[in-house]
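<context>
A single protein, sequence plus fold
<entry> Chain with its tokenised backbone below
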Amino acid sequence: MVLVARRPNSPVLTLSLSLSLSHHHTQASALLSRAGAAAREEEAAKKSAAAAALLDGNPNVKVLESAAITALFTKIRDKTTGRKEFARYSDRLLRILAEEALAFISTVKPCTVQTPCGPYKGLETQPDEDLCLVTVMRSGNILQEAVRTIAPDATCAHVLIQRDEDSIGKEPKKYYSKFPHGVASKQVLIVDPMLATGGSAAMTIDEVLDAGVPQENLYFICLVAAPEGLARIVKDYPNVRILVAAVDDYLNDDCYIVPGLGDFGDRYCE
């Protein structure tokens, strides 16, 4: 910036100094912003690495992988995908997750059946009547319906927990819970598409445990998980089994999953 030499208090000199200071302030702000972003990325990488170490080799955690799952995620993660298409591709993806969930239950046993041409070694799944689906309203209702489509005789329970957007850390708050008679003797699947901080998931798990269900009979089924929330559930509830279609990178400052897919319930329903 070139300063024009004129008498003190010259309007031109004052304006030039002001522009120069503004320019340097903008540069400094940009540097601080980049430094802050780099620090957040470094912290996120540390959290992801810690979560990966905790999950590595853990027999109670299964992350699904297939070309079909990747293709469907590509559709629903795209922010330009409209509601109708989002719902259609989500339903296809949730159907895959639901089938995997029923085969993930620990009581599933090897069996042999006879085909028209000879024996086949397969798996015998749990009868629908022995299952209870706990939905974390409202997004959980969507995943619950995907499971009920293939297990129509499973009983259902509902928990309404929402995170307080005004609280530090977006802490969860429970509004409602109701469980069917005899839930303590069933294999219980908690279904919720998104696992972010793990706060709502932990509160739901506590509600189910208080109903008499042992951790060994409890499963958490979700579409997308942040490593921070996943690590929290694994640490606090080591015997709960977890099935997830994708583990993303980290939580941002607003406790949203990155890259994530946005608010699943809003994009599906609205």
